[in-house]
Design goal:
By secondary structure, the chain is an alpha+beta fold. Helix content is 39%, strand content 21%. A hairpin with a 5-residue loop joins strand 10 and strand 11.
Amino acid sequence: MFEKDIVDIVLENLEKNTGIKGTWKELGAETEHKGLVVDGKLELILNGHPTEFYVEVKREIRRHHIQQLIRLNQGRHPFLLVAERIYPKLKEDLRREKIPWLDGAGNIYIETADHFIWIDRNEALPEKRNTNRAFTKTGLKVVFLFLHDEDWLNRTHREIADAAGVALGNIPKVFDGLRDQRFIIPVDKKKIKLIRKRELLDQWITAYGKELKPNTHAGNFVFFNRDDERTWRKMKFQENDFWGGEPAADLLTDMLKPQVYTIYTDKTRAELMNQFRLKPDPDGNVEVYKPFWDFKENGNHLAPALVVYADLIITQDERNTNIAQNIYEKFLQDRF
């Protein structure tokens, strides 16, 4: 079990480095309460007395998790985050929100009416290089297809490869990678399904920002004049031109004035300059990428909602993260 594996590591290092002992407990029917889902309970022996916490387990914490953790901390009290890795800046954010946490190195922060414990002197676990083929730039295209529409999971390898635009030989390696991390399980002899889909989505977004999106970058540009930037919604997109990131989020929610304009297109630099009235600039706020999907969502010139969501999350900008949560709740939540 994914959660138990991480908790075992955390508790072992917690006891070794602080002397605090803990016990993991399954929740059963208590897992969900008023729409707030946790992974289990953890009993810690604090000052000689057992104290139970509702627990959310993560491999790694990113900024976009903070709002979800705030809600859990308020609604599933007492709450505790357990994560294999928490970066220093995010530890500051968690402390500011008074969200208790344990990390994989045995560090701990708990501030309640009865306890104040803050130990953060142990070195973080070494970051492992991810060699799982499901999360390479090629594998991420395949996993994106599964996240977008889980029915693809049970198509032929040839169909999956053609839809993802990757070589056929990559498909078994992607399936092996997903099995290794226990993201897929058999339904029967012929069918499989995804599990822990939200965790898979989080891992996909992290790898997308590091591996896939930079690989599709076609250059930065600026508008020829300020009027063109102010009237960006009137730009004449053709069949395979899509807004991503902030402009797509504004078109989906009408809640975000873009500062960076993300365009997905296969057009050449000359075509971009002529059709969209753009000029190359390495520091420009118009970022152009090649699309890595081969379907249209809602028949418009917007990238799939999953891409827009990921584009916003990887900016690590608080404004974008809040809008991303809105997009997730409106367009993605039912899938995960």
